[in-house]
Amino acid sequence: MDRVTRRRALPWLFALLLIAYVGLHVVQFLTMQLALLDEPVNLVDAMLIQRGLRPHVDFWTMYPALNYRLNAAAFGALGPSVVAERLVQAAIYVLLLAAWFLYLRRARRLSTGAATGWTLFAAVAIGASFTNYSFNGLAFSFAGLLLALVGLERGTRRPATWLAAAGVVVGIGALTKLNFGGYVGLAVGVTLVLDVLHAEHRAGWFRRCCAFAVPVVIVLGVYAFRYRDALALLWDDMIAFPGEHLEQHRILALALDPAGLAAAAAIAAPFVWIALRRSGVARLVAAGLALLIGAGTLAVGITSPSALPRIFIVAAAALVAWQCTRARLGRPEFVVWLAFTLFGHYFLSRADRFHYHAMVPFVALLGPFVFDRGLALRRAERVLAVALVAFLTLPVGAWDQRWLVRRAPALVTDELSALRRGASELLSRGDTAVLMAPGPDANPLAARLFRDADEIAAVRYVHERTAADDPIYVGLRDHADVFMCPTRTYWIAGRRPGVRRHMLEPGMTTEPAIQREMIAELERNRVRWVILRENLEGDPSYEARAYRGADRLDAHIRTHFREAVSYGAWTVRRRVGD
User: Fold this and answer.
1) Cβ atoms of 209 and 201 closer than 8 Å
2) Pairing between strand 473-476 and 529-533?
């Protein structure tokens, strides 16, 4: 095969690999077991919205409600099943990759083969975040960043139009996940404001700033207007209440395991990248500084975890700004690094796989800049740059997905077969109807999504003794020590929670004042049935804190509800006197 033939075949090879990878990942996502907490929060809150309840008013959520409303619309269109919610998320995943490809072709001017290859690389990098229930917020925010990058490119026609579109999408991202949209919005906003310092960017400066800022304000303003009668609740749910209890709620220790070390490497990524823009001895010095910064951040995280986010944000932002000035970086690269630095706060607010996966796409986005014509790197240096981006991305993004290759045969045969045979019934009848009917194992997909037979038995016992509008309470046997709550049980039961703060959080719903509020709601709503699960253990850093909250709620449940039946880790209690 000659060189020309190989070059023509390469895009097709990358495209086939991309389709295979995305296809396998989507099948795995649609058939994987539903977790106890994270994803069910989206499902349950969407169910409550479908029933006419208002977020922030009738039930507590620390996130804006756009994602819940999106899922509620999916339930209305496709059916009340986890499959519907996951199909929407899978569609957003595919659209984000398509937007990445178009960005590489139109803005970065890469060839079809290079753009397809980097899209495959991005799919692997983003894939670690794809099954995260916060993915939709990440995707909208990231898409807004891509649109902003197009508007910031030299020679872009009508940059204000691109920035206005970016403002709309970033605003939507903020209404899905407030901090994600905030990180990207702040990164783009700071970059635009700093344009006034550069003579070449002063022309049309005010118009560009307004083009981005006004749509963001309008989108957020529409949401605030929607809840104009409950602005105090809105502030309390998303800002005041989580902020007041953040240090108790979050686990800030960074464990010295392969995952933590990979995350430390990701933290150093912007500084390593900046080193590539320098030459000779300066590059080596900057690379050494990057390693010291990563090691220092890790050391601070171990010795003084509660101060880590603030220290990191201040130090990293200052170093990035200083290095960017010295290296004469382009505006698009600057906004990527700044967004990455701000996302470091999300990772460092709780150092675990779930949170640092959100940082990986921004590292991957640096890769295509290697091929920028303004980057004065020789071929060997370009190879080094690509290798470093891969090294800083794949250990975090791809290492946790290595099982996808091993399970590929089963995904193509067993899981795909279960999806084909069971999805239509779940979508048409709903998860609750299928699971509460005799013999739920008859649906092969339901058997994969919901694997805790004891939980289903406990829910069926309550479901048979309640009406569709009856409230129930799902909690833990020890509410003073909360690590993760079984929100999934509300979804399986198809019953509304009997308390406003149905999502139990350590350092939040463990506090005496909140438990008094929950007890009052249990009585006011005349909740008759309670389902409790044995407490789940936390990670080592959580256990080391040995934090215990109030036991008021446990005492109330013991005195006002008697045990009716028990199934393994699950206990059903009925109100005394009923």
Assistant:
1) no
2) parallel
Q: Across-strand partners of 573?
A: 530, 563
CB atoms within 10 A of CB 543: 12
Q: What is the 3-state secondary structure (H, E, C) of 156-190?
A: CCCHHHHHHHHHHHHHHHHHHCHHHHHHHHHHHHH
54-75 burial, b if ≥16 CB within 10 A, otherwise e? ebbebbbbbbbbbbbbbbbebb
pLDDT in tens, 238-259: 877 776 665 555 544 555 555 5
103-126: per-residue pLDDT in tens?
Answer: 888 888 888 888 898 898 888 888
Question: At 150, which amino acid appears?
Answer: V
Burial class of residue 3 (count of CB atoms within 10 Å of its CB; 0-12, 13-18, 19+):
exposed
C-alpha span between 46 and 49 (Å, rounded): 5
Element (H, E) at 561: strand 561-567
The position carrying tokens 């393994």 is 568
Q: Report the distance separating Cα 381 and Cα 89, nearest Å.
A: 38
- pLDDT per residue over 398-416, tens digit each? 666 766 777 788 888 889 9
Confidence of residue 276 (pLDDT cuts 50, 70, 90): low
CA-only gyration radius of the chain, Å: 25
Q: In what order do the strands lie in the sheet with 570-575?
A: 473-476, 529-533, 570-575, 561-567
Using an 8 Å Cβ cutoff, are 148 and 105 in contact? no
Phi, psi (rounded to 5 degrees) for 33:
-60, 140
Q: Give this prediction's pTM.
A: 0.86
Instruction: Tell me the one-letter amino acid at 523.
Output: E
Containing H/E element for 563?
strand 561-567
Angle among Cα 499, 36, 396 to the nearest 5 degrees reads 130
- How far is it, in rounded angstroms, from Cα 462 to Cα 257? 42
Average pLDDT, the chain: 82
Half-sphere exposure of 382 (CA within 13 A, CB side): 12
Q: Which tokens sit at 110?
A: 């890469």
pLDDT of residue 522: 96
SS3 of residue 473 by DSSP: strand
- Residue-wise pLDDT tens digits, 139-155: 999 999 999 998 888 66
Residue 172 to residue 64: CA distance in whole angstroms = 10
What are 79's two structure tokens? Answer: 């059916």
Q: How many residues does the chain have?
A: 578
CA angle 52, 527, 481 (to 5 degrees): 100
Which element (helix H / strand E) includes 533?
Answer: strand 529-533
Residue 348: the pLDDT is 62
pLDDT tens digits for range 352-388? 666 767 777 877 777 777 666 556 666 666 676 677 6
What amino acid occupies position 453? A
